[in-house]
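Treating backbone geometry as a discrete language has practical consequences that deserve illustration. Part of our work consisted of pairing the sequence of a single chain with a tokenised description of its backbone. What the numbers capture is local backbone geometry rather than side-chain detail. For completeness, the protein is quoted in full, as a sequence line and a line of structure tokens:
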Amino acid sequence: MLGAILAVFLLSVVSAQTASMLKINSFKAYVNGDKDSGTVDVKPEDTVEIEFDVENIFPKTGGLDIEDIEVTAFIDGIDDDDDLDPDDEPDEFDLEPGDEESVTLEFSIPLEVEDKSFDLKIEVRGTDTNNTVHTITEERTIKVDKETHELLLRRAELLTSNLKCSRNTQVDLNIVNIGTSKEDVVVRVTNVELGLAFQDSFEMDDDPFDSDSKYSKSIPLTVSKDAEASEYQINVRATYDKGGRFVEKNLPLNVEACEPAKPATPQQDTTVVVQQPPTTQPTVTQPVVVAQPDETAESASIFGGSMTLPLLIGLEVLVIIVAIVLVAAWARRRRP
């Protein structure tokens, strides 16, 4: 009997020595900004925000600081059997006796997730100034609550939302079955004014990890050249659950008038003429030449100045003959 009492006493002492002086208070959960209570209900691609306070419950008088306090958290097995960590790990912090620190954790629920409950596990650990480790844990339930019939229109976008002379564009679509039932789906892309009418029918699986639970397609659209300049709404609609449900989105398409191209102005070849300044020739002063009277010219002038060259020659011959005759006569007179 005495031994049993002693054992209980020792266990109490050990528990007292190892009791954590950290405490989690004011636990709150928000799903896409809306406060939740109790079980946290989520859907694929929801954002979950967890807020709580961590308190050092040592007494303010004589108590110990707890330092290097670390918060770790994860949702167990929600990501295709892998754990899901928060988007950002909180920083470490210290707490004096009686003080609190607010902690915020944010989780992005995967698109591909099963319809069931998962455990959110939180652990807070720190060391006091006596080198004693203090740990506190908290667990909450995260329940993925899917609808029986639900499609998610993840993307519906126009490649080009402004058309002018080129009247071609396309709609990029991505649809996911996030419900718990298989679906026969009809997709339509329409605009009555532009005469656009595309339709496609297919089946979508309910297994979130099966590729047949997703639909992706690029749908080409051609607008007539005769379409008036205006803004049009392209309606994208996916009908399911035997036509009883649908998801849709209107995409604005702006069509502008195509102005005819102006004829190109012919380019004139421009020839640049470089004019050289006139070269100034030096003025050369010629010596004044005084012409001597020409005897032949004088003789010619005696006979009128119109005598030709043969006549002049004949006259010269005649003069010579006369001179010879005169010389000969003079010579005869001088002989004794």
User: Anything to note?
Assistant: The helical segments are 2-18, 295-302, 309-334.
